[in-house]
């Protein structure tokens, strides 16, 4: 019974390529997020969608484009990959509200060569 | 800029001892506070959340919140080797689903 799932789990690619990561949640949540965790383990919000609408857009290069086709899915497309994009990308979901717990997916480990 | 700070370096504790983790936050408007545990190579999982001043206990874990001092802590009693992980403190604030995370504290429980 996977709650928040991401594909792929690992992604190794060359600089300049375009890649996508997919996320799905079956918790019935209406808010979904993308986080980036760098090599120093710092976890930072990138984007958040509530009911398919973008509500948080941190200072992220516009090579990163999220898309939410419905409440249960949030995808991340990355154009022209750079070495510095290497990180673990986590998808998360929650119900709307300050006190709501965010549940994280297993992460996608991206390595750009 | 809403920041959450966890400044302590790796914490080594003997099995059965108490591990104490601290976290401070910059925004007095912060409403809710969360402690996540992250095992190496895994995703963060919620340990505890706390909204009100004072202590909140759940099993071997106690979270403490002091809004006047902008300080949150986590105590792990009777530490077990399975508690060895990185603990992430996070804060959110009213009207905003955004979580600001600290950099984490690594805990190593020595058998």
Description:
The complex is a heterodimer of chains A (113) and B (111). Chain A is mainly beta and 113 residues long. Helices cover 0% and strands 56% of the residues of chain A. Chain A has strands at 4-7, 10-13, 19-25, 31-37, 43-50, 53-57, 64-70, 73-78, 87-94, 103-104, 108-112. In chain A, the strands form 2 sheets. In chain A, strands 2, 4, 5, 6, 9, 10 and 11 form a 7-stranded mixed sheet that branches. Chain A has a 4-stranded antiparallel sheet with strand order 1-3-8-7, with no helix packed on it. In chain A, a hairpin with a 2-residue loop joins strand 7 and strand 8 (73-78). With 111 residues, chain B is mostly beta strands. Chain B is globular. The mean pLDDT of chain B is 91. The chains are: A mainly beta (113), B mainly beta (111). At the A-B interface, strand 5 and strand 10 of A face strand 4, strand 5, strand 9 and strand 10 of B.
């Amino acid at each position: 019974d996977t709650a928040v799932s991401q594909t792929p789990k690992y992604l190794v690619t060359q600089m300049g390529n375009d890649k996508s990561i997919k996320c799905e949640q079956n918790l019935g949540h209406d808010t979904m997020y993308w986080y980036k965790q760098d090599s120093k383990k710092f976890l930072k919000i990138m984007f958040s969608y509530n009911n398919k609408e973008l509500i948080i857009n941190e200072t992220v290069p516009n090579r990163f484009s999220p898309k939410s086709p419905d409440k249960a899915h949030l995808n991340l497309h990355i154009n022209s990959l750079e070495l510095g994009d290497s990180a673990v990308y986590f998808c998360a979901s929650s119900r709307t509200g300050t006190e709501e717990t965010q549940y994280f997916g297993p992460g996608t480990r991206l390595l750009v060569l | 800029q809403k920041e959450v700070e966890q400044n302590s370096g790796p914490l080594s504790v003997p099995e059965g001892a108490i591990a104490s983790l601290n976290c401070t936050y910059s925004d007095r408007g912060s409403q809710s506070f969360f402690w996540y545990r992250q095992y190496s190579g895994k995703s963060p999982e919620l340990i505890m959340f706390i909204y009100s001043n004072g202590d909140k206990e759940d099993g071997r874990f106690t979270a403490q919140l002091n809004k006047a001092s902008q300080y949150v802590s986590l105590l792990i009693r009777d530490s077990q080797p399975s508690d060895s992980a990185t603990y992430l403190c996070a804060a959110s604030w009213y009207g905003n689903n955004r979580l600001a995370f600290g950099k984490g504290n690594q805990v190593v429980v020595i058998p």
